[in-house]
Amino acid sequence: MFQQLTLMMTVPPLLVLGRPGTWLLCGLPHDRIGAVILVGARWGLRSWAGRLALHPALIMLAR
């Protein structure tokens, strides 16, 4: 039980700090279908709606 509670309390803030969108941009291949996904991901991450949706305060409130 202690391990489960520890993981539940420590992993979400680390995910927020790790910026999964940035990892998506680094981890995808830059050819063929990966290039299409990268363009969409960049557009989504740079738009005002994407920034608002990924803001740490909003993510913490949504839990």
Summarize the structure.
This protein has a domain at 19-62. The chain is 83% helix and 0% strand.
Protein model, in words:
Keywords: Cell membrane, Membrane, Transmembrane, Transmembrane helix. It is a multi-pass membrane protein. It is found in: Cell membrane. InterPro entries: Caa3_assmbl_CtaG-rel. The protein has 63 residues and is mainly α. It has a domain of 44 residues. The chain contains five helices and no strands. The two termini are 20 Å apart.
What is the radius of gyration?
15 Å
Q: Give the biggest sheet.
A: none
Mean pLDDT: 80
Q: Determine the strand fraction and express it as a percent band.
A: under 5%
Number of DSSP-assigned strands: 0
CA-CA gap between termini: 20 Å
Structural class: mainly alpha
Helix content: over 70%
| Topology pattern, helix = H, strand = E | HHHHH
Question: Per the principal axes of the C-alpha atoms, what is the gross shape?
Answer: flat
Helix count from the secondary structure assignment: 5
Task: Report low-confidence residues grouped into runs of 5 or more.
Answer: none
Keywords for this structure?
single chain, 63 residues, mainly alpha, 5 helices, 0% strand
Helices and strands in order:
Elements: H1 2-18, H2 20-27, H3 33-46, H4 48-53, H5 56-62
Pfam family, one: Caa3_CtaG
Subcellular location: Cell membrane
Keywords: Cell membrane, Membrane, Transmembrane, Transmembrane helix
